[in-house]
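Quick illustration, no need to memorize.
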Amino acid sequence: MPDEVLTIREVATLLKLAEKTVYAMANAGELPAFKIRGQWRIRRTELERWMDEQPRGGGDGDA
């Protein structure tokens, strides 16, 4: 079965973030995203792997 490809809107919903935030993260290279004809897409398996690699405990890591 092929890997599901998600839109920015779907990723924003999954991460409980604003779409604008997800766009900014994709543009900054913070998410495993790629563009197809100018539209950002993220493979579900890569997003799940990325989420597993993120530090736990809330916040953005700044003390």
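The CA atoms of residues 8 and 14 lie 10 Å apart.
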